[in-house]
Design brief:
The protein is of the alpha/beta class. It has three domains: 308 residues, P-loop containing nucleotide triphosphate hydrolases (Rossmann fold, 3-Layer(aba) Sandwich); 79 residues; 93 residues. The protein is built from 17 helices and twelve strands. A twelve-stranded mixed β-sheet has the order 2-1-12-11-10-3-9-8-4-7-5-6. Strand 1 and strand 2 form a beta hairpin. The model has no long low-confidence stretch (mean pLDDT 88).
Length: 517
Amino acid sequence: MEKMLIGRGTGEAVLLSDKVNQHGLIAGATGSGKTVTLKVIAENLSAMGVPTIIQDVKGDLSNISVPGEMNDKLASRLETLGVSDFKFDGFPVELWDVFGAAGLPLRVTVSELGPTLLSQILNLNEVQSGILNILFKMTDKEGLLLLDLKDLRSALNYMIDKRQELSKEYGNISAQSVQSILRALLTIEDEGGDIFLGEPALSIEDMMKTSSDGKGIVNIIQANRLVQSPTLYATFLLWMISEIYEALPEVGNLDKPKLVFFFDEAHLLFNGISSTLEQKILQIVRLIRSKGVGIFFITQNPLDIPDAISSQLGNRVVHQLRAFSPKDEKAVKTVADTFRANPQLDTYSEILQLKTGEAIVSFLTDDGSPSICQKALIMPPKSTFTALDSMAMDGIVKNSTLNGKYMQSVDRESAYEMLNARAAQAEMDLENQRLAEARQKELEKMELEHQKALAKLEKERERAEAETRKAAERAAAKVDRRRKSAMDKGIDSLVGTVTRTVGRELARNLLGSLLKK
């Protein structure tokens, strides 16, 4: 266990390293000093080798990488704190950006995000969320990878084509509901979801590293643009803590945490989420401490955090809160009542009157109970207050050992390509079938024409044979007639000759008889 000096009041405000996984709250109005408190805690954690993840909503945390410099204001503050051995220092930083503009691109696949969080992003109703669940079951069953938005869009269109078959297995799936989801994709695409969803997906292990000198890496997520898309921002943070929870093994209560997560603008995390998701966050907050992970929520008003979750936050730093109405006063009183009472401190009045850099602080003690709250002046950070210019930030990104892994997007074969290939194959099969049918018809036509030609030839052959027979018959008949004519003439000549001879003989005989008489 190590002690981290966060501030001083009537005594030292010390955050114990083995109690960080009991989570924490940093609250206060704009300009009250929340960012400084966040930096001081993150610096202490880094110095002891604990990596952190911080959402940088205002874009002013990347300077934690550069050592600060002494000035009159800092000297006065250190003197008030009674610190004489203060040393400026810089801490190892990795810059990340969901949009890939000011840091290493942060991506997650559609499959890893899952239907519940995706429904939250798309603001789907119960029926549409049910259809999205069916979609994930269908794609798992058919081996269709959902990696990015075009995969999701292709799978939804495919679902429309298969809705009758799927409805028999999963219940009614209307084309109108699927088309509503497709329209919702346009919203997330406009918010940059097409950049956020894809590969290479973030590996949480890459955020849990230490530098060569043993310091924990401070992972800063540039969220100044992301926070303008509250739904995407909240869902992204939900995915991250869920992924951390799923990725890490149970380790119990360690001397120091394995990782600490800072949620800036935490009210966005809970704004408008479903009760189901709120219960999921509560479950993770309760259980993730056994994974050696601490979570700090940073917000302007502690009441932005749901009571069930706020009650899990053992370490509390509340800067000045402002009350401009009876409702605000009631809220401040409620916040004051969450602290372990200090008989010598009017917590409610002090919260309203705190100066910049001052806070009401209560950290968990050795036995796990909250310390009596005290008014404390927060330590200054060891890093600079001067914002980094774009060139310095680009240098951090380019020199990162993770640049080669995450900077270039990857578009491997997934549902979009597979379904397009199927469609192309189906079109090819259909075309081949059409060609085969056309060929078959052509062959049948050719066969028919062949048969007709054969029949015609057969008829012509038969006609020719008939004509040949007739010609032969006519020729034979003619020969017969000629033969007959010649014979007839011979017979006639013979008969004539015989007749004449017989006649002469008869005549002679008759005359002879007559003459003798």
